Amino acid sequence: LILLVTLLTSLVVSFCGVIGFVGLTIPHIVRNLVGSKHHWTLLFSAVLGALFLVGADWLSRVLIPQSEVAIGIVTALIGCPIFALILVTNKKKAS
């Protein structure tokens, strides 16, 4: 079952690209902000995810004048440190 889920997840990421990484980080951030009530988590995850992607798109267009940086690069540069921080913080809470 774990192998099947891993395969399906890798297929989804290969079709969606790096922007799908937002779906990993934003719900964790929202859960830390509003708690674990599912209806609030879902609502605020959608809003914060949309705001994050609009901001990343704007930043990708403004970062280098006369050219456009790929939005996946911007989301990875912002999202990876945040996701690492979430992992370290949750690991400290668990121990």
Residues in β-strands, percent:
under 5%
Integer-rounded radius of gyration? 15 Å
Largest sheet, in brief, is:
none
State mean pLDDT (0 to 100 scale). 86
Report, as a whole number of angstroms, the end-to-end distance: 28 Å
- Structural class comes to mainly alpha
Helix content: over 70%
Annotation, overall tally of beta strands: 0
H/E element sequence: HHHH
Low-confidence stretches: none
Shape: globular
- Summed up, the helix count is 4
Provide keyphrases for this structure.
95 residues; mainly alpha
List the helices and strands and how they pair.
Blueprint: H1 2-16, H2 22-34, H3 38-62, H4 71-94
Helix pairs in contact: 2-3, 2-4, 3-4
Description:
With 95 residues, the chain is mainly alpha-helical. 81% of the residues lie in helices and 0% in strands. The chain is built from 4 helices and no strands. The protein has helices spanning 2-16, 22-34, 38-62, 71-94. It is globular, with a radius of gyration of 15 Å. The two termini are 28 Å apart. The model has no long low-confidence stretch (mean pLDDT 86).
